[in-house]
Amino acid sequence: MARKKVYKEISVFGSIFDIFNHFGFILFTLACIFPFYYLFINTISDNELVARGVINFLPQGIHVKNYIALRTVNDLTKSFVVTTARSVLGTALMVLASAFIGYLVTKKEMKSRKFMYRFLIITMYFNAGLIPWYLNISMLGLTNNFLGYIIPSIIAPFNIILVKTYIESIPSELEESAFIDGAGYFKVFTSIILPLSKPILATIAIFGAVGHWNSFIDSIILMQNAPNLYTLQHRLYVYLTTASNLEQIIQSSPASAVQHALNSKVLKYTISMVTIIPILAVYPFMQKYFQKGIMLGAVKG
Question: What residues make up the domain containing 187?
Fold first, then answer.
């Protein structure tokens, strides 16, 4: 009887803990979602009500004129194209490089394999600093150059570690059978390793895409004399610091779609939302690969 009483007390305690645990996670989720929801409802609500600060939970006077008005800002369109091109190209090259290098450092027959792998890891913890990095990039001719966004980010040590660990979990018998059939390393890599590594490659693709899309500092430092190469985040920073000037530019446009008066607050909200929507739209489709890849790729050291 005493044992049943103990089990009952543990069960009751566990149920109470589960309730508080779920309640806490719900609150945390709402706290993460609400800022995006708040931005969105303020961009589609009546601008006068937004300016007065009365839109907090539900939209009022719903319209999409604020988003249509942004089409008149040419610089924003250019920055969107630059950021999209950078995210797609930079992520693709980073994933390919991480996959290939991660595969190479799993081969025991590779000369100086351990030294090269450890040397690669060291760069995660030690670097020369911002100024030497800028001088190096400048000497390579990558300032005011679109390639300045791409080349420095191709090698990502952390992603290589994840890929290496994942590849080591693939049964070696698959490679051995391919070698017996006459396949070389490149054939094994393209025909066996890449198809089986989709989860971890999707995971690092998310890391790379989010990093490129949200990039800010390198655009400010490297593209000082090339406004046409500003990223979307850099352009957002410029707009937020000069929102009143941009407001006058939009309101002076003859297009009928922008006759609806914009104020600096609404303008900031709308531009911020434009920079967020694309990455939020892509992430859910990659979530299933992300969960599987990050777990399998982090089992070993």
Answer: 65-301
